[in-house]
Specification:
Largest sheet: 5 strands, parallel
Number of helices: 7
CATH topology of the largest domain: Rossmann fold
Order of helices and strands: EHEHEHEHEHEEEEEEHEEEEEH
Number of domains: 2
CATH architecture of the largest domain: 3-Layer(aba) Sandwich
Helix content: 25-40%
Mean pLDDT: 86
Distance between the termini: 62 Å
Length: 238
Amino acid sequence: MISTIAIDDEPLALRLITSYVQRTPFLNLVGSFDNPLDAMEYIHNHDVMAVFLDIQMPDLTGTDFAKLLGGGPKVVFTTAYEQFALEGFKLDVVDYLLKPFGYEEFLRSANRLRDRLESASQPAVEVKADHDFLFIKTEHKIRRINFDEILFIEGLKDYVKIFLKGVPRPLLSLITLKSLEARLPNDRFMRVHRSFIVNLQQISLIERNRIVFGEVHVPVGDQYKEVFQAWVEENFIL
């Protein structure tokens, strides 16, 4: 069961959302709120996994509310204003329900929500000891990736982008950069920035404090410079 709350300052809309949540077998309604500040207080003190959230509200907008949640409950926006869809995408919300919507549309969003939570609860990456490859979950598939295919990895909140040689689009996987770093061999991969891990064997050009991969420049963060420079000097030939 997915512990769920609904937030909307319009009474009729709030009643509709709560009735839809209650009709859905895998959702457990644990609260409904017409004030986002009350909802935030509830989330801080209870285990909430999902939020159906209106955007246009007094005191605190839905987009600001979602930003404050950070990596907490998953969010489905419910709003009458489609111009907020892009911002919802940037905030990595699960879905965007445009009012008025019926139960069929709601159920599709609820299923996306369940899929997202189930994916998050399962290991996204498996690496075997003494192997030179990993298996990673991406786009509802499990794919084998050889270490020597990887150029660099970028972390984006709860996701990573894995950039591969000769592949125009990065692979997207639901795992944090920190978790993935712990599964990679540290003699082949190095964290060089809070948002980047590079494949040391794929580095062919360093420019100032940036590692160049074609058109992409990966920065070397201040807290990682010393270790990275030591690696460069160890492999430097005068």
